[in-house]
Amino acid sequence: MRILTGLQPSGKLHIGNYFGAVQPAVELQDQGDAFYFLADYHAMTSMTDAVTLRANVQDLAIDFLACGLDPEKATIFRQSDIPEVNELAWILSTVCPMGLLERCTSYKDKVAKGISANHALFAYPALMAADILLYDANIVPVGKDQKQHVEVTRDLAQKINDKFGEGTLTVPEVQIRENTAVVPGIDGQKMSKSYGNTIPLSGGKKAIRKTIMRIVTDSTAVEDPKATEGSNIIALYKLFADEAALNQMIAEHEAGGFGYGHFKQTLFDAYWEHFSAIREKREELENNLDYVNGVIAKGAERARAESTKVLDRVRKAVGLR
Ligand code: TYM
């Protein structure tokens, strides 16, 4: 069973990425043949600065390893080290109806936010389909916002198989964890780099505490009971707390007498504790960049062995050399 997922090096990794994709990826690397990659071609749809892109790639590679992705178990690589992905994206584009891309909500959201649409942004799902299909992936663990893209991938794989023969491409399954499908940001919308509402995984204590203190709440007075339904703080605290701690926070909301600042501090403490080992590992890796770069180089070799095999199969099936 092959498991595959990718993350864009488009900014600091946040806890939505962590709980939605990285933590599942860490667990799944023990259950199959895992391929995890840094989606730098995709990041180019929102970034134009070469120096920042390169730095982000390195930073995300450090995050991957600090969070527990293990190069002994998983193939960890950079998308752009495998140029075959562009050729497969082209082949997929030839069976991809415009309407399928026009219906993608992630594209529509970005355009609605005023991001000027270019061809890469529009064709983003076709490249993502190529990422997945190039490695015969069976399972794709992602957050809910990527579900539609995996559905497009399945659709395109099926179209290729219908036209050029069953078995040309492997049709993948999406895997989304219910509890962490949509991690909310500090404003209650989905946590997202492009909404500026993220809690990053790494950063200084003071800055992160300040971010957590900015979580949006209602204006219930300190002495009054507070709503637990729809509470951003509770939704985030659930990610870190065991049952007893969560019940205590809920009871304190219901009792009244505790201000939101108190709950935010509890959340911050839980956050800080939860990521302490990852922070330490991160620091170690920051001082060992040769190792990090070595992992990526080796990952590229392993990924390439697979990608050339699959692309060769597809090329033959569709009538290319
Ligand atoms: P990206 O970089 O936006 O996000 C990386 C992963 O984090 C998940 N995620 C979330 N999960 C829960 N709650 C949130 N608030 C939240 N925000 C982000 C995303 O669902 C994703 O799993 N297109 C992809 C990258 C990609 C890819 C692929 C993924 C490129 N090719 C092939 C899988 C397979 C993206 O933009 O992820």
Characterization of this structure:
There is one protein chain. With 321 residues, this protein is mainly alpha-helical. It folds into two domains: 211 residues, HUPs (Rossmann fold, 3-Layer(aba) Sandwich), CATH 3.40.50; 72 residues, Tyrosyl-Transfer RNA Synthetase, CATH 1.10.240. It is built from 14 helices and five strands. The strands form two sheets. Strands 1-2-3 form a three-stranded parallel sheet. Strands 4-5 form a two-stranded parallel sheet. Strand 1, helix 1 and strand 2 form a beta-alpha-beta unit. Helix 3 packs across helix 13, helix 7 crosses helix 8 and helix 9 runs antiparallel to helix 12. The protein is globular and about 75 Å long. The chain starts with a strand and ends with a helix. The model has no long low-confidence stretch (mean pLDDT 96). It binds tryptophanyl-5'AMP. GO terms for molecular function: ATP binding; tryptophan-tRNA ligase activity. Its main location: cytoplasm.
Structural class: mainly alpha
* H/E series: EHEHHEHHHHEHEHHHHHH
CATH architecture of the largest domain: 3-Layer(aba) Sandwich
CATH superfamily grouping of the largest domain:
HUPs
Number of helices: 14
Estimate the mean pLDDT confidence. Answer: 96
What's the story with the biggest beta sheet? Answer: 3 strands, parallel
Subcellular location: Cytoplasm
Binding site for L-tryptophan: 131
EC number: 6.1.1.2
Family: Belongs to the class-I aminoacyl-tRNA synthetase family.
